């Protein structure tokens, strides 16, 4: 293997097709990381690439460079966020979220007001990826954006970063005409798995929209099963029939036996006999208590038989 000496040629090797040139791709990328003092200014002109293989190379190089030279990469990405080229801004936003550069958070506020909806949407999403909770209240203003994609990513990030406060911050979403936006609540809540039952109950009590509740029912298997679920399941039992049936179907599809037993407990308080009969076959009752005499260890003779043999 002979690596190129110039950064241009080295970047070409680093961006080669991995399946055909695997022997040179990773070494070339690692060499660029090793030569980070030269690489950083060189990459400033590459962040806006539209070539997929070059983008893959950057996605490998930038996080490792950040670990090796945090200040240098932070300055590179901070400067690139103000680029006039949208591709450079979008990649820089990705790097901000991937490396969790919270120190650059003030630079994202203007991007949330950008004229291009792609910048607003990307900024909203990467704030969540970077876990910058301080900007979540600012995102509440984007919940009435004209573009559904921006509203969706804003709602997702608000739930992701401020789960407790989100139930009140998301009031505009409760009446949103786009199911894509309404689903973002459940998607954001799922990032907190295992979800605390009291947090899930907070959303069930706060949300009046039946379609959003349907989305939440699909998150039931993400609840923390090590904590008492009686209160939460009691709230679910008081929802409309469509929501309850969605909950039952979700529990049926869950692979863990625990949720089949939970289904049995919920069906026990189900008021509609038709619904109860429809899903009863899929539930698993709690395991019966077995007497010690009837539970011999594998390969041994039951206690009662041993007494007879004596």
Give the key terms.
60% helix, single chain, mainly alpha, 18 helices
Q: What's the SSE blueprint?
A:
Elements: H1 7-14, H2 22-34, H3 36-43, H4 52-68, H5 70-80, H6 86-99, H7 117-129, H8 136-139, H9 148-161, H10 163-169, H11 179-190, H12 197-206, H13 210-217, H14 230-237, H15 241-253, H16 257-268, H17 273-280, H18 303-309
Mean pLDDT: 90
Task: Sketch the topology as an H/E string, one letter per element.
Answer: HHHHHHHHHHHHHHHHHH
- Counting helices, strands and paired strands, the structural category is mainly alpha
Classify the oligomer. single chain
Q: What is the radius of gyration?
A: 27 Å
Low-confidence stretches: 288-310
Distance between the termini: 78 Å
What coarse outline follows from CA principal-axis ratios? elongated
Query: What is the tally of beta strands?
Result: 0
Largest sheet: none
Number of alpha- plus pi-helical segments: 18
Beta content: under 5%
How helix-rich are the residues, as a percent range? 55-70%
Question: What does this molecule look like?
Answer:
The longest helix has 17 residues, at 52-68. The chain is mainly α. The radius of gyration is 27 Å and the shape is elongated. The model is unreliable at 288-310 (pLDDT under 50). The chain is built from 18 helices and no strands. Helix 4 crosses helix 5 and helix 7 (117-129) runs parallel beside helix 9. 60% of the residues lie in helices and 0% in strands.
């Amino acid at each position: 293997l002979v690596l190129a000496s110039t950064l241009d040629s080295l970047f070409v090797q680093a961006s080669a097709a991995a399946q055909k040139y695997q022997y040179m791709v990773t070494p070339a990328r690692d060499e660029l990381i090793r030569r980070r003092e030269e690489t950083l200014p060189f990459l400033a002109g590459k962040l806006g690439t539209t070539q997929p293989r070059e983008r893959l190379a950057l996605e490998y190089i930038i996080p490792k460079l950040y670990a090796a030279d945090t200040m240098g990469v932070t300055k590179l990405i901070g400067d690139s966020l103000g680029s006039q080229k949208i591709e450079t801004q979008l990649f820089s936003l990705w790097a901000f979220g991937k490396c969790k550069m919270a120190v650059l958070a003030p630079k994202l506020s203007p991007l949330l007001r950008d004229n291009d909806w792609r910048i607003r949407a990307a900024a909203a999403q990467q704030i969540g990826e970077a876990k910058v909770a301080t900007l979540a209240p600012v995102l509440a203003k984007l919940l009435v954006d004209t573009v559904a994609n921006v509203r969706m990513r804003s709602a997702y990030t608000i739930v992701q970063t401020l789960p407790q406060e989100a139930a009140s911050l998301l009031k505009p979403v409760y009446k949103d005409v786009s199911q894509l936006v309404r689903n973002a609540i459940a998607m954001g809540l799922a990032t907190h798995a295992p979800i605390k039952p009291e947090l899930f109950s907070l959303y069930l009590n706060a949300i009046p929209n039946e379609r959003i509740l349907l989305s939440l029912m699909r998150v039931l298997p993400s609840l923390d099963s090590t904590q008492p679920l009686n209160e939460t399941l009691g709230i679910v039992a008081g929802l409309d029939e469509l929501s309850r049936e969605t909950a039952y179907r979700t529990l049926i599809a869950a692979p863990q036996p625990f949720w089949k037993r939970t289904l049995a407990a919920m069906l026990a308080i189900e008021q509609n006999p038709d619904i109860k009969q429809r899903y009863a076959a899929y539930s698993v009752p709690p395991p019966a208590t077995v007497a010690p005499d009837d539970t011999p260890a594998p390969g041994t003779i039951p206690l009662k038989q041993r007494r007879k043999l004596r």
